[in-house]
Amino acid sequence: MTASPAGRTAAPARRERLNPLTSLAAAASTAVMTTAAASWVLSGTVVAGCLVLSLATGAARRVVPAGAAVLVPLGLSLLVLHGLFFPEGRTVLAEWGPARITAEGLQFAVQRILQLAAVVLALLLFSFSVSVPDLVAALSARGVQGRFAFVLASTLTLLPTIAGRARRIREAQESRGLVISRGLLSRVAAFRLQAVPLVLSLIEDAGTRAAALEARGLGNPGPRTTYREVPDSTAQRAVRAVLVVAALAALILRVVQSGA
């Protein structure tokens, strides 16, 4: 028994009812408020929420590997930096010369890793679930034209390729004899060898995509006409306004608390 064409298009239609600007506001405000709050409880809640949403939307197969590719090396570096060399640490768990593991350093590192994970997963979930044509059309409909829409579209079309490209680079280097042991130094050296070709390939790909988008007039100034209708509602516009105000309030509160 096969699904009818109407049945095949019903699910995407339900997923696209959310305006891409609402998704963008939610991801950006979540990143800002999580960073400003610096609370491991809030960060852990955001991480869990992003994982649940990625599973519900079917984006987990792309969000989780891409998030791991970003968070694992950064998390290890934070553990090494703050776990071994935390100046405010008082409770020493282990010590090797100038390096010492402190409970305060580990707690600070875990808090920063959770905070970073919340921001990365929120932005990745948005980038993997948003429709780039709908986002560009929504931005153009609200007067956001020219270079900003051009750069945003180019970046979002590039993000889904990062995890797969990093995996192919690692497999290619392992086929040439690269051995990654369980030691920290070996993993750091392997990350450096994989990060350089990844960044260079992303820069080259970004240039190619930018040239293609530029040739299609996306970066040209002046009025433009879009034939893509993106649904919106008063409720979603109100939600976006609340999210922006909440993010600004979190930033102001953080600045006041830092200056006090």
Q: What keywords describe this structure?
A:
single chain, 260 residues, mainly alpha, 2 domains, two-stranded antiparallel ribbon, 10 helices, 2 strands, 3% strand
Q: What does this molecule look like?
A:
This protein folds into 2 domains: 20-130, no CATH class; 131-221 and 228-239, no CATH class. Helix 3 packs antiparallel against helix 4 (60-84). Strands 1-2 form a two-stranded antiparallel ribbon. By secondary structure, the protein is mainly alpha-helical. The chain starts with a helix and ends with a helix. Mean pLDDT is 76; it is low at 1-16. 74% of the residues lie in helices and 3% in strands.
Oligomer: single chain
Major sheet: arrangement of strands: 1-2
Total strands: 2
Overall SS class:
mainly alpha
The largest pleated sheet is described as:
2 strands, antiparallel
- Give the fraction of residues assigned to helices: over 70%
In short:
The chain has 260 residues and is mainly alpha-helical. It is built from ten helices and two strands, in the order ααααββαααααα.
Mind sketching the topology for me?
Layout: H1 5-15, H2 20-37, H3 40-57, H4 60-84, E1 92-96, E2 99-102, H5 103-129, H6 132-141, H7 147-158, H8 162-175, H9 184-215, H10 234-259
Antiparallel strand pairs: 1-2
